[in-house]
Amino acid sequence: MTGVQTCALPILFRRTRNVKRRIFRKKVGFVHFVLKGKIASIIEPKSFVERQIRKGPEFDLMSLRNNFKNLINNCTVKGLIIHLNKYEINGQADLYELRELIKMWKEANKPVWVYANNLGLGDYYMVSPANRIFLISGGVLAAIGMHTSTEYYKQFLSKQGIEVQVAQISPYKSAANFLSKDEMPEEEKEMINWLYGSVFDSLIEGIAESRGKSVDQVREMIDDCPKNATLATEEGWIDGVLGHEQIVEEMMKEFGIKDRKSTRLNSSHTDISRMPSSA
Question: CA 29 from chain center: how many Å?
Answer without folding.
Answer: 22
